[in-house]
Write a structure and sequence with these properties.
Layout: E1 2-8, E2 11-16, E3 24-27, E4 36-38, H1 42-55, H2 57-69, H3 76-91, H4 94-103, E5 115-120, E6 123-128, H5 139-154, E7 160-165, H6 185-194, H7 197-208, E8 212-216, E9 219-221, H8 222-230, E10 233-236, E11 241-243, H9 257-276, E12 280-281, H10 282-288, E13 293-294
Parallel strand pairs: 2-3, 3-4, 6-7, 7-8, 8-10, 9-11, 10-13
Antiparallel strand pairs: 1-2, 5-6, 11-12
Helix pairs in contact: 1-2, 2-3, 2-9, 3-6, 3-9, 5-7, 8-9
Amino acid sequence: MTHLVELASGVTVALGSPTDDATFTITETESEDRRVITVPSVDDALDELRRRCERWPHAAAVCADVLRALDPDAPAYPGVITESLAYSTLQAGPEFRRWLAERGPAQPVTIADPVVAERIGDVLYVRFNRPQRHNAFSTDARAALLEALEVARLDPSVTTVVLSGNGPSFCSGGDLAEFGTFADPASAHLARTRYSPALVLDELTARLGANCRAEVHGQVLGSGMEMAAFCGRVVAHPDAVFGLPELSLGLLPGAGGTVSITRRIGRWRTAYLVLSGQTIDAPTALRWGLVDEIS
């Protein structure tokens, strides 16, 4: 028998047997079903999920809606557009404004050469290069990443692309010092979708398959996790930690993760990572299918 608990508008957690009607199912029993997340204590997990959904009800509900609307077998473009429009909606909402007020003024940090690229034969190595900030993804890093990937996009003699990060982490997600710097959500939407590393990585993976590879370590959070998941193969160092922290900003994943991560682990576990704010280790990521190998 399945018991459904509603946490926010459109967000329901199943206790018992898994069902597609739920946002996801939690249990204390191990399960290979992608609709199910195994937790140490169902009561504790439910209490924490309820607390988070009560604090960020708009972001929780919109995230659940976007994930339900996604067709993982469809091309990436419509999913990325839908995600970005939902992200912009939340940027205009009270939960993101509250986070900005709590954060206070912030000064974006410019670091030279935020992405470095090197071609050796037919292999293009692309590395995030803001190690002082755990490779937090910034506007200038996005521009540099797109410039580097364009080499592989336009040159068919590049047969392998390897995406990695210098320093202690692959990528810790968006640089929080830059959040809120766009004048309006519409401009932010256009910037995300007209200059989208997600769509370029998806295109390269369609051409190269597993030869478009991400090698991840340390913090693999937010946009870092979302971009890596677009690659045809993801290899994780044993120290890698994965998570989607966007709900605590009043947002949902905005770098294509509702597409890339859902393709790999299903909408249910993707929703759990967003709504719970929990991180998972490399063995769990491998078991779920988020990564393909532990190095």
